[in-house]
């Protein structure tokens, strides 16, 4: 009896399959990095996007996506759906701003654009991570 072993190694996936404009830029317009905000009050987070458009989740249209706000966490795997929990807020209706309230302390905020299926684009479109202080 002859046994044949075959090994298939796939290259790791680093991003989803939906193309993004390579010039795309997503950013947090407010609050600013280092901003001190009052505790016990909701504050606005404003999302900015250049060279791509915003479309609701479930809508497949070239060079569009929708925002995900990452709070106190690192970027998720770029080849999987973005989680939906208290650290990964989805704005699947196409929102470009939100009101949030955070407990006192140091917090990080970052935006990640997702395609119609909540998967990051290729290349991924994410903002710089900013730090804010709630006092």
Query: Number of DSSP strands?
Result: 9
Q: Please indicate the count of domains.
A: 1
Order of helices and strands: EEEEEEEEE
Q: What is the mean predicted local confidence, pLDDT? A: 91
Full CATH superfamily name: Immunoglobulins
Percent in helix: under 10%
Organism: Trinickia symbiotica
Keywords: Signal
Protein name: DUF4399 domain-containing protein
Signal peptide: 1-15
Fold blueprint:
Blueprint: E1 25-30, E2 36-37, E3 43-50, E4 53-54, E5 64-71, E6 88-90, E7 97-100, E8 105-114, E9 130-134
What keywords describe this structure?
DUF4399, mainly beta, DUF4399 domain-containing protein, 36% strand, signal, 0% helix, single chain, 135 residues, disordered N terminus, Immunoglobulin-like
Characterize the structure shown.
The structure is a single chain. The protein is mostly beta strands and 135 residues long. It has a single domain (25-134), classed as Immunoglobulins (Immunoglobulin-like, Sandwich). Helices cover 0% and strands 36% of the residues. The strands form 2 sheets. Strands 2, 4, 5, 6, 8 and 9 form a 6-stranded mixed sheet that branches. The chain is elongated and about 40 Å long. Residues 45-135 form the DUF4399 domain. It comes from Trinickia symbiotica. Residues 1-15 form the signal peptide. Keywords: Signal.
Outline:
The chain has 135 residues and is an all-beta fold.
């Amino acid at each position: 009896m002859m046994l044949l072993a075959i090994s298939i190694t796939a290259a790791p996936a680093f991003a989803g399959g939906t193309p993004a404009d390579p010039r795309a830029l997503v950013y947090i317009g407010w609050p600013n990095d280092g901003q001190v905000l009052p505790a016990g009050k909701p504050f606005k987070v404003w999302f900015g996007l250049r060279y791509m458009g915003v479309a609701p989740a479930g809508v497949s249209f070239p060079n569009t996506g929708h925002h995900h706000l990452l709070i106190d966490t690192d970027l998720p795997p770029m080849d999987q759906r973005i989680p939906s929990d208290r650290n990964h807020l989805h704005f699947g209706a196409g929102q470009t701003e939100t009101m949030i309230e955070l407990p006192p302390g140091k917090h990080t905020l970052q935006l990640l654009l997702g395609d119609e299926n909540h998967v990051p684009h290729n290349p991924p479109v994410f903002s710089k991570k900013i730090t804010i202080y709630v006092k």
